[in-house]
Amino acid sequence: MSDFQKPLRDGSFAPPNALQLRAVTRACFADEIAIDFPALGMAIDRVRDTFASQDEHLAAASASVTLTPRQAFEGTIVLIDVALPGPCGQCGGRGESWSDPCDSCCGTGESDHPHHVHLAVPALVAHGTRFRFVLTSPRARPTRVEVIVSVA
User: Fold this and answer.
1) Beta strand pairing status for 100-101 and 76-87?
2) Using one digit for the tens of pLDDT, what is the confidence trace for 101-144?
3) Half-sphere exposure of 95 toward its Cβ, with a 13 Å CA cutoff?
4) What is the pLDDT of residues 30-75, one digit of tens each?
5) HSE on the CB side for 134, CA within 13 Å?
6) How far apart are the first and last CA of the chain?
7) Which residues sit opposite 148 in a β-bridge?
8) Dihedrals φ, ψ of 122, to 5°?
9) In the chain, which residue ranges form alpha helices assigned H by DSSP?
10) CA dist 72 → 20, 51, 64, 129 (Å)
11) Which 3 state secondary structure label does DSSP give 57?
């Protein structure tokens, strides 16, 4: 540090303890900043939940999309049908009805529920590109979906 004082914007010189005053002022407002701006803890938890490898317990589904070269170059929106596993609608997930096996789910208690998804494919997508995302539905369990793009 220099022993010489720097002039302020208006041309006057700051008193010698001005630097200490600024440090005290910043320390005083530190609590208000923590209160005014929410902590990133909740956001980080959401990112971890989204991208962490906790998806092992999720059901998995896959789909494929065939695009023309023009669609792959310009980008497009494609409708895909995905079968999401969930509780059987006939037996309510019990697998039986009055001790008789359910005919709809063959006694497993689960059936596939069709779900329609509009997938926005970006421009300049290459053959073999994979999109991965998680679908949730009120009638089915959260499902990890992988869509493979083929250009023909």
Assistant:
1) unpaired
2) 888 888 888 888 888 999 999 999 999 999 999 888 888 888 88
3) 4
4) 555 445 555 555 666 666 666 655 555 677 888 999 999 999 999 9
5) 14
6) 68
7) 64, 130
8) -70, 165
9) 18-36, 41-51, 69-74
10) 61, 27, 14, 11
11) helix
Tokens of 109: 């208690």
Q: Residue 149 burial by CB count (10 A; 0-12/13-18/19+): exposed, middle or buried?
A: buried
Contacts 24+ apart (CB under 8 A), 8-15: none
Amino acid at 38: P
Residue 115: name the closest of 90, 91, 88, 83 by CA: 83
